[in-house]
């Protein structure tokens, strides 16, 4: 499996995995030679990266953090429940939360069960799905990153559930934001941004009045845009005034926003998103949480083609857990010449470093 940008796909390339719509239907089959028409369709769908079959990487398999069944069920559940909340609010100017807690409790437990069995760093680039709305996939991705990080931070079962529920519902307040503002493809005005910022408090008010959802879980929605130096919203609180759950969500939220395709910009690769987190570590984000997060996610995803500082070129073949910035590389080219593939471990060869990624070059071109 090799990770490439959809813009770099060539005719007759074949996908390793099918592309799904959020309703579970297969949009593009795996192992079928791609035509230019299908490649154009992938690009139009907003899918930035895919895994293709490749001779050099034929034995490399990237495992899903959560199963395809769980991911599809999660997206459909989030979409259905958020729509019901929104419709009820429009009609009645109030929100019916009777089923909210029960439905999402079951879903979070299912996601937790999948993540607990995962023994590798987290990578979501291997999951190729097409969605009608960013908020649904973002809510799930933030939940996966959050639970994965909290697990490595040795959270108890109760804490994992609390923060998992808070993560999947952290943006529920956005259902109150007009769609034309939420999906605007140009710079927001000051007035529009002020409306967007109301989603944190709206989500908190909804969740704290929902039976069987704790106040701590509700605070995940309330505080995930707060920042250590007090520059966040809605309260502008700082430091220890921000709950630890919200500090974790802040990191997961920004990371997924950066690595997802948005209306106004293309997705970054994980190492680029991590640079943004590190730039804000200690001022915007908790430094220890950023450090732990960097060891939890795949900074250089398996299957990614990379360039090394000594002129070699290779593909990430394996991850070093807790040291994902130093993966194992399968080298296949040196100084522009093909060589018999062999592997080097960047954790052991400390003088070797990744300086560029082919997928990023493809985006820039």
TrEMBL record:
Gene3D superfamilies referenced in this protein's UniProt entry, alphabetically: Hypothetical protein af1432 (1.10.3210.10)
Pfam families per UniProt: HD_5 (PF13487)
Cross-referenced InterPro entries: HD/PDEase_dom (IPR003607), HD_GYP_dom (IPR037522)
Domain HD-GYP, chain residue ranges per copy: 114-309
Superkingdom to which the source organism belongs: Bacteria
Protein name in UniProt: HD-GYP domain-containing protein
Organism (species): Anaerobacillus alkaliphilus
């Amino acid at each position: 499996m090799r990770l490439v940008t959809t813009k770099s796909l060539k005719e007759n390339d074949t996908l390793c995995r099918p592309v799904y719509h959020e309703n579970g239907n297969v949009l593009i089959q795996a192992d079928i030679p791609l035509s230019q028409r299908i490649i154009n369709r992938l690009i139009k769908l907003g899918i930035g990266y895919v895994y293709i079959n490749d001779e050099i990487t034929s034995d490399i398999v990237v495992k899903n953090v959560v199963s395809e069944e769980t991911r599809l069920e999660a997206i459909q559940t989030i979409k259905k429940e958020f729509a019901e909340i929104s419709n009820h609010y429009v009609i009645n100017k109030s929100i019916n939360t009777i089923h909210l807690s029960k439905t999402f409790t079951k879903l979070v437990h299912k996601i937790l069960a999948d993540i607990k069995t995962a023994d590798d760093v987290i990578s979501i680039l291997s999951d190729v799905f097409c969605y009608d709305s960013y908020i649904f996939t973002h809510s799930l991705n933030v939940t996966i990153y959050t639970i994965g990080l909290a697990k490595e931070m040795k959270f108890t079962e109760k804490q994992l559930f609390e923060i998992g529920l808070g993560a999947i519902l952290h943006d529920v307040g956005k259902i109150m934001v007009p769609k034309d503002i939420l999906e605007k493809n140009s710079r927001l005005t000051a007035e529009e941004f002020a409306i967007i910022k109301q989603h944190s408090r709206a989500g908190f008010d909804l969740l704290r009045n929902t039976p069987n959802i704790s106040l701590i879980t509700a605070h995940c929605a309330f505080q995930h845009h707060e920042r250590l130096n007090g520059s966040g919203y809605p309260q502008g609180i700082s430091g220890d005034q921000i709950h630890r759950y919200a500090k974790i969500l802040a990191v997961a939220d920004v990371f997924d926003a950066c690595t997802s395709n948005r209306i106004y910009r293309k997705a970054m690769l994980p190492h680029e998103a991590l640079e943004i987190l590190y730039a804000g570590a200690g001022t915007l984000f908790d430094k220890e949480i950023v450090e732990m997060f960097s060891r939890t996610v795949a900074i250089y995803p398996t299957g990614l083609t990379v360039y090394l500082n000594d002129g070699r070129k290779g593909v990430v073949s394996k991850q070093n857990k807790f040291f994902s910035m130093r993966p194992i590389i399968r080298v296949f080219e040196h100084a522009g010449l093909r060589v018999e593939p062999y592997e080097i471990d960047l954790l052991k060869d400390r003088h070797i470093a990744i300086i560029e990624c082919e997928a990023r070059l493809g985006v820039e071109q």
